[in-house]
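[audit] Reproducing an earlier prediction to check determinism. Same input, same settings, fresh worker. If the tokens differ from the archived copy the diff job will pick it up downstream; this log only records the rerun itself.
[audit] input (112 residues):
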Amino acid sequence: MEFADGEMIVREGDDGAEMFIVQSGRVVISRHRDCSDTILQVVERGEFFGEMSLLESLPRDADARADGRTRLLVIGPGGLLLRLRRDPSLALEMLHILSGRVRALNQRLDAR
């Protein structure tokens, strides 16, 4: 899938059961609270987002917007399972990245 600069990819509260891998461009993940947007993360080429909705079958937890012309690989539940069967080390890589995200969020909270 391709997105133009500034185009919304997903919105907080949307239903969704897929995750995305950034093939080119960047994606800004943000949440809107108290009349302002808070940037949670900037997802670069080779990184992923949207895994929470894929894994938990819950609505999207944040907005995702293209930053520059952006191309994404879309992975649904079956596609993720197939990739994990082919390469089980992918699960460890994903866990490592997710752990890093939690650690970074904790540091941001501690800085407040």
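[audit] rerun output stored. Observation attached for the diff report: The mean pLDDT is 92.
[audit] end
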